[in-house]
């Protein structure tokens, strides 16, 4: 005998498929939420870790900026101290320079030449005086040039002075004072020549 199934089997099958669909949809949704949650957690942790690294670097940069500012202050102080030391060394070296200046002026002056006025501005010296003749001024210039303490001897003028009874020649010389013991002064003179 043949069995006839009069129950609505198609309806049951459709319901079963619908139920399976919703179960699979729920499982997929839970799986998607789980994947989304894990991805969010991973990127959130990565961002927090990077922010921590950024904060650490910012703190270290701030410390380094403070150290750089301190180093700049120390370098400025060092430059100031070096400048002071150079001034002290220069003063120490030029302490006896005036004594040598007058000593060399006395040693180099020939007979018949008389100095009336000596003016100094820094290393530039101006000598004014009287001479019995042009040749004595020339001799004086040669002697000054031969001295190690003077460089750049120049004659500004020489003229006859009729106001004096002996008819002497009035002259003016310009020279530069150098320290022969100081190497920098000699190098500077060579560059200026």
Question: In words, what does this structure look like?
Answer:
The protein has about 190 residues and is α+β, with helices and mostly antiparallel strands. The chain folds into two domains: about 10-95; about 95-190, 2-Layer Sandwich (Gyrase A, domain 2), CATH 3.30.1360. It contains four helices and four strands, in the order ααββαββα. The chain has helices at about 10-95, 95-110, 135-145, 185-190, and strands spanning about 115-120, 125-130, 150-160, 170-175. The chain has a four-stranded antiparallel β-sheet with strand order 1-2-4-3, covered by helices on one side. The longest helix has about 80 residues, at about 10-95.
Topology (elements, then pairings):
Elements: H1 9-93, H2 97-108, E1 113-121, E2 124-131, H3 134-146, E3 150-160, E4 169-177, H4 183-192
Antiparallel strand pairs: 1-2, 2-4, 3-4
Rough outline: rod-shaped
Helix/strand order, N-terminal first = HHEEHEEH
CATH architecture group name of the largest domain: 2-Layer Sandwich
Structural class: alpha+beta
Say which CATH homologous superfamily of the largest domain is assigned: General secretion pathway protein M, EpsM
> Helicity range of the residues?
55-70%
The tally of beta strands, per DSSP, is 4
């Amino acid at each position: 005998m043949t069995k006839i199934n009069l129950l609505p089997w198609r309806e049951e099958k459709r319901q079963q498929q619908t139920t399976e669909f919703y179960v699979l949809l729920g499982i997929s949704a839970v799986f998607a939420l789980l994947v989304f949650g894990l991805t969010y957690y991973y990127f959130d942790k990565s961002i927090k870790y990077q922010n921590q690294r950024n904060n650490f670097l910012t703190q270290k940069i701030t410390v380094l900026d403070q150290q750089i500012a301190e180093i700049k202050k120390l370098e400025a102080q060092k430059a100031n101290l070096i400048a002071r030391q150079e001034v002290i060394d220069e003063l120490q070296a030029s302490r006896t320079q005036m004594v040598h200046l007058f000593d060399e002026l006395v040693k180099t002056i020939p007979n018949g030449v008389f100095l009336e006025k000596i003016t100094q501005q820094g290393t530039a010296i101006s000598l004014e005086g009287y001479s019995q003749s042009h040749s004595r001024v020339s001799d004086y210039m040669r002697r000054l040039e031969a001295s190690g303490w003077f460089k750049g001897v120049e004659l500004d003028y020489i003229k006859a002075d009729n106001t004096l009874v002996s008819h002497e020649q009035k002259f003016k010389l310009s020279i530069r004072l150098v320290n022969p013991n100081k190497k920098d002064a000699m190098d500077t003179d060579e560059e200026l020549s």
